[in-house]
Specification:
alpha+beta; 412 residues; binds zinc ion; 2 domains; 12 strands; 5-stranded mixed sheet
């Protein structure tokens, strides 16, 4: 059989949000490294009677495959390979580039970050396809609590962090996904629970915002949670249910979520109150499927007013000025450490850094001599391990000199 080549998949100008979401959710390599595949699977639930399962479970498979293909636009296949376990349906790429898993992940991540649907607010349906593929293909309906749960696999810290794309770029509120990022990271670093953990999404939120494509899962929801569904014309089962309200603590949760990724420290109630004021944040923020916090502002207000490029040489007071509204604070600018392309800003926390206005200017393409620019880049790397880690992923290298060179060449 002829499969899509990974080179075509990665270089295609087609957006393919569903397939990107599927591979981002789970990818595996065949033993001989010749194929890379993503998969979907689901089992019969014990909460449905044997009669119901006879009637719906097996019968759901063809219909599900049809809907999978409708979302994906490229065909999935029934898995007939016994070496591939726990896969009902698979989508296979031919590894014509001889990629290793980490190189594949890196190319996939860059493709996702630079896709139009990620940065374009109007591309709501594509964002939904991407999210559905990530969560539903291997997710299962929890029959005791209203959650959709899926196994979360990761091979390294970068992959562990990939879930933040849904908050930073897709615009899902962290309140719908109960995840303690710091705990996860600590487990990862300590080596316990390295391979997989569970992600749990609020089911009511999921149903009201995304619906389901799997007829059997829709049936389980109807039976267990007594929520009826309609079959929409784009092949998605839509549910009439209320978007849940989240508690007032959610703002603090959200801020802590972001802050734990940049600062790795707890915030006091006072920090949170200040931040709420700074961000002009309304408690009654809706839990809709849209970006609810500007991560650039979080970095601006949450990190110390110092310049990552020159803090070891100058005091910020000598490089900037106090803000009139906040006399304790110094004016700084947020810089994207890695620039890719002309318009694509890689807006993820890991790629942002705080600079004084002078260093920020100095890092414009051709603004000053190359050696000085490289020195500034090197200083940022030393100050912000997150930036270095992110650049390593983007440029597929762990070598500091090489990363400095690449970041320099990509200055805008
Ligand atoms: Zn500076």
């Amino acid at each position: 059989m002829n499969y899509l080549k990974v080179s075509e998949f990665i270089n295609s100008t087609d957006e393919m949000p569903f397939l990107l979401g599927a591979f981002f959710g789970r990818y595996q390599f065949s033993n001989d490294n010749k194929f890379i595949y993503t998969l979907s699977t689901y089992k019969a639930s014990k909460k449905l009677s044997a009669d119901e399962n006879d009637k719906f479970y097996l019968a759901s498979k063809d219909e599900y495959l049809k809907r999978l293909n409708l979302q994906s636009e490229l065909p999935w296949h029934k898995n007939e390979n016994k070496n591939i376990k726990n896969a009902e349906f698979i989508f296979i790429l031919e590894n014509d580039l001889n990629l290793t898993p980490s190189k594949f992940y890196s190319k996939l991540y860059i493709k996702i970050l630079s896709s139009d649907f990620i940065s374009n607010k109007a591309e709501m349906e594509a964002k939904k396809k991407f999210t559905r593929a990530f969560f539903e293909l291997r997710g299962s309906i929890d029959t005791s609590r209203p959650l959709l749960a899926k196994d979360y696999f990761y091979n390294n810290v970068s992959e562990l962090k990939r879930i933040s794309l849904f908050f930073d770029n897709i615009g899902i509120s962290i309140n719908v996904l109960n995840i303690n990022f710091r705990d996860l990271q600590e487990q990862f670093i300590s080596g316990e629970n390295k391979r997989n953990t569970q992600l749990r999404v609020n089911l009511y939120w999921y149903l009201s915002q995304l619906g389901l494509i799997n007829p059997y899962k829709a049936r389980i929801v109807k039976k267990i949670y007594n929520i009826d569904y309609n079959d929409s014309n784009n092949g998605v089962y839509t549910f009439e249910c209320q978007i849940p309200e989240f508690s007032n603590n959610s703002f603090a949760d959200r801020v802590n979520f972001y802050a734990s990724r940049i600062l790795n420290q707890d915030l006091t109630q006072r920090d949170i109150d200040n931040l709420r004021k700074e961000l002009n944040f309304d408690d009654n923020v809706n839990q809709d499927f849209k970006r609810d916090m500007n991560i650039i502002n979080v970095v601006r207000f949450q990190t110390k007013d110092e310049c990552a490029a020159c803090k070891n040489i100058y005091d910020i007071k000598d490089r900037s000025f106090a803000l009139r509204k906040h006399p304790q604070r110094w004016y700084t600018e947020i810089h994207h450490f890695v620039s890719v392309g002309k318009e694509k800003q890689l807006d993820v926390i890991e790629n942002l850094t705080k600079l004084c206005p002078t260093c920020h200017r100095a890092l414009g393409k051709g603004k000053t001599n190359p050696d000085y620019q490289k020195e500034l880049i090197s200083n940022i790397i030393d100050a912000n391990p997150n930036n270095f880690e992110f650049a390593c992923l983007i440029f597929e290298s762990n070598n500091k000199e090489e990363i400095i060179q690449k970041v320099y060449e990509n200055l805008k």
